[in-house]
Amino acid sequence: ERERPARQQAAEAQAERDKLEREKLARQKAEQAEREKQERETALAAQQKEQAEARRREQQLADLRKKARSALAGNRLTSPGGDNAVELAGQMLTLDKGRNEGLQILQEVVGRYVAMGELAVAGDDLAVADGHYRAAERVVKGYRLPDVELRRLDRRLNAKRQEIAEVERRAREKRTPIVSPPPPEVSAPADPPKKAEGERSKVFVPPSF
Length: 209
Fold this sequence. Notes:
Layout: H1 3-73, H2 85-95, H3 101-122, H4 126-143, H5 148-175
Helix pairs in contact: 1-2, 1-3, 2-3, 3-4, 3-5, 4-5
C-alpha cells in the first residue's frame, strides 16, 4: 500500500513533465509558425517593393528615352545642359546598365557628328569638320563606344588636308614670277694698238736702174 502513493506520485510527476514538454513543443511550433509568417510577410513586402521600384525605373527609362530621342531629332546632341541626347542617354545607362538603349542613342549621336563632319569636309570647311570630329571623339572615349565611324571621318579629314595643301602649293607656284637670268655682259671691242710715235708707214719705192 505504501508503494502505491510512490508509484502514483512518480506517474503524476512524469505526466507533469510530459505536459510541460508538450507545452514547450507547442510554444516552439507557434514561435516557428510566427517566424515563418513574418518571413513570408517580409519577403512579400520586399517583392512588392522591388516590383514597385522596377515599375518606377521602367517609367523613368521611358521618360528618358522619349526625351533623348526628342533631343536627337532636334539635333541637341551635347547642349543645352540637361536637355541633350548625350546627357539623357548617360542617365539611361546609370539607371539600367544592362540595357543597350542608352548605348544605341549614344552611337547615333556619334553617327550624327560624323555625318556633319563629312558634309563639312565636302565643303572644304576643315575647321567645322574638325570640331565635329572632336565632339564625336569625346562621346566615343567617354562611353567606350566603337570608333569605326570616327576613324572613317579622320581618314577623310586627313585626305582633304593633303588635297588642300597640294592645291595651295600649286597656287603658290603659279603666283611666283619666273625670273630669267640676266644676259651675259658683252665687252666692247678693244681699240687697235696705237703705232709708236714717229713710226711712219713704210712705202715701197722700186729701185731705179
